[in-house]
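ok posting inputs for the magnesium ion job
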Amino acid sequence: MSIVCIANQKGGVGKTTTAVNLAAGLARRGQRVLLLDLDIQGSATAMLGAARDAAAATVAECLVQERPILDVVQPTSTDGLKLAPAGERLAVVDIALASAMAREQVLKRCLASALPHFDHVIVDTAPYLGLLTMNALVAADHVLVPVSCEYLPILGLKLFGETLARIRATLGAPCEVLGYLLTMYDQREKITVEIEEILRRNFGAAVFPHPIRINTRHKAAPSHRKTIFEYEGEGGRGRRDYEQLTDDVLARMGVRAEQSFARLLDDAEPRAAAPARRRKTARAAR
Ligand SMILES: Nc1ncnc2c1ncn2[C@@H]1O[C@H](COP(=O)(O)OP(=O)(O)OP(=O)(O)O)[C@@H](O)[C@H]1O
Ligand SMILES: [Mg+2]
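and the output
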């Protein structure tokens, strides 16, 4: 079970497109996936074509009333992919959360009972580092950071990295960077080549090996309320890119799981070895 937060405080870098298509890609591999829409704009909710019932409870009500997210989960047209929809009231949740107990942990508490029902929770976030995004980062095991191949988005990455470090240090949240993902990638553009070079120089292997190429189908699919897998034909570029990302994400999560297991063994070792060391020290003292 893993919670992946898709975040970057820069707007329009491909967060929602990545959240929806990665979630669909994982579900197409037979995984049980929940896409949680934590953006006031509700773009992921609109993209997955959820029937909008203004009176129905959404993630917003769950957070304000500390109700289980499971209460508002809906099916989508993709088998195995469920949606926890954003609602208009998300706009005021930041204010409501400000006075909540352990206000950065509210989402984590609301999500707890849903976790056994899913293999992955993908959280789409808004383009600012407010309390809602903070809640998503605190709840997450991993963060995936889409970066569009433009100059301005990379300027904000330093602030984003500092915010993550602060969350880890002060709130004890794991939220490890699963990877930086180049989006709207066009190899013919000089700026694309430059941005890729800067990103790979600064973040090395943390940058996903395969970018998401620029593709007008990604612009069109949301208006048809379809994922790229539903919108583009077999073998389409956009579809192949998100298939590839699904592979890369699963591979990285596998490696991380192995690393945490190894860390667990490392942590256990000194405790197991301690009595032997103590015996040795005692013998030396005699
Ligand atoms: N690879 C791509 N090629 C072309 N257009 C894309 C690509 N990925 C996303 N887009 C388009 O770019 C726009 C912004 O993408 P998206 O909504 O995913 O970004 P976002 O980071 O979620 O934005 P916001 O910060 O406003 O939530 C949308 O119109 C989307 O359809
Ligand atoms: Mg978005």
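notes: The pocket of adenosine-5'-triphosphate (ligand 1) is lined by residues 11-17, 39, 41, 43, 127, 183-184, 212, 214-215, 218-219, 222 (CB under 6 Å). The chain has a mean pLDDT of 90.
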